[in-house]
UniProtKB/TrEMBL annotation:
Mitochondrial transporter that mediates uptake of thiamine pyrophosphate (ThPP) into mitochondria. This is Mitochondrial thiamine pyrophosphate carrier 1. Belongs to the mitochondrial carrier (TC 2.A.29) family. Keywords: Membrane, Mitochondrion, Repeat, Transmembrane, Transmembrane helix, Transport. Solcar repeats lie at residues 32-111, 127-229, 237-327. It holds the Pfam family Mito_carr. Its main location: mitochondrion. It is a multi-pass membrane protein. The chain crosses the membrane at residues 242-260, 298-321. It is found in: Mitochondrion membrane. GO terms for molecular function: transmembrane transporter activity. GO terms for cellular component: mitochondrial membrane.
């Protein structure tokens, strides 16, 4: 994913190439970007998952006073495990889907670079931004079709306890009961299909698709452009360029996606509420629209955690991935 039109960057790239090279197995070489991306994402996602758990909880419930209150109450009610509930999903499915997105991005970028006639040809940085945006948005949009159910299950696992407690607190019926059995991801999937149908795992798909397509374009274009620009400064090392570019890309992509991500979380929270109500013999609540109010403060609850997590996770990811790609041949 290196910038391909900047001589300074190519010169800096030799810093890695001259280091010790490890040979990648020939049989797996065609899948090298996917495998290395998956390994890098697994490491970075494990580090950033507790922050993501806090963000999702704050998006889905508006009575937390702040991050400290959310962390404290989560720890008191669920312990350390509460911050890692649902981590199996991103470690397996999300890492796979994002690694496939990166592989698709790498394949699509040359196609857009040489076949789209309307792109700016005179200013290389503008062209780099245009190509990367189109490649990133297309790749993320395609893969989002397969990632929506897994993302739904992750959110279900993260906020299921909160939904149960809200129903217990707000319901006058003694039929609602609290059960730890619901914590299982497999059990959550089974109940979702049983009570709401297979379509329930695609709840909020329009927000999911819009979020991934738009943020994917911003994410990859901002990474490539930032790395491209930093390469023009002799004092900026390659390692620093990659680390900073990865962090900026993560923050910008996350900020653009945040309102859509919040709307998706609210839609899926309603699905979980209906599943619990139906399971306990109650009627589901009337459907309600989840309109996005861009300038409403509640929409952006948890945004600081999102920006912090995005910078850390993506800086780590791109650093590991770029250096692995350079060293493993």
């Amino acid at each position: 994913m290196s910038s391909i039109t900047n001589a300074n960057f190519l010169k800096k790239d030799s810093q890695i190439c001259h280091e010790k090279v490890i040979f990648f197995p020939d049989v797996l070489f065609p899948w090298r970007p996917t495998i290395l991306a998956y390994a890098s994402l697994s490491i970075s996602n494990s580090i950033g998952f507790p922050i993501d758990a806090v963000k999702t909880r704050m998006q889905s419930r508006y009575d937390f006073k702040g991050y400290h209150d959310c962390i404290k109450r989560t720890y008191i009610s669920e312990g350390v495990r509460g911050f890692y509930r649902g981590i199996t999903i991103p470690l397996i499915s999300n890492s796979i889907s994002r690694s496939l997105t990166i592989s698709l991005f790498i394949k699509l970028k040359p196609v857009f670079y040489y076949t789209v006639p309307c792109l700016e040809m005179n200013k290389s940085v503008i062209r780099e931004a245009q190509v990367s945006f189109l490649s990133g948005a297309t790749s993320a949009g395609i893969i989002s079709i397969f990632t929506c159910p897994f993302d739904s299950l992750k959110i279900h696992s993260q906020i299921l306890i909160l939904v149960q407690k809200d129903l217990l607190k707000n319901s006058t019926s003694s039929q609602i009961h609290y059960s730890k059995e619901h914590f299982s991801i497999i059990n959550t999937l089974r109940k979702a299909v049983k009570y709401k149908g297979l379509r329930s795992v695609y709840s909020g798909f329009k927000y999911h698709l819009s979020r991934d397509t738009l943020s994917g374009g911003i994410y990859y274009s901002s990474y490539e452009v930032t790395k491209f620009l930093l390469s023009s400064f002799p004092e900026a090392s390659l390692q620093t360029s990659i680390f900073i570019a990865g962090g900026i890309a993560g923050v910008l992509g996350g900020l653009v996606a945040f309102p859509l991500d919040t709307a998706k979380s609210l839609v899926q929270k309603n699905v979980i509420s209906d599943i619990i109500r139906i399971e306990n013999g109650l009627d589901p609540l009337p459907c309600k629209a989840n309109s996005i109010k861009i300038f409403h403060g509640a929409v952006y609850k948890g945004i600081t955690a999102t920006a912090f997590r995005a910078f850390i996770v993506n800086s780590i990811f791109f650093t590991i991935f770029e250096f692995s790609m350079a060293r493993l041949h």
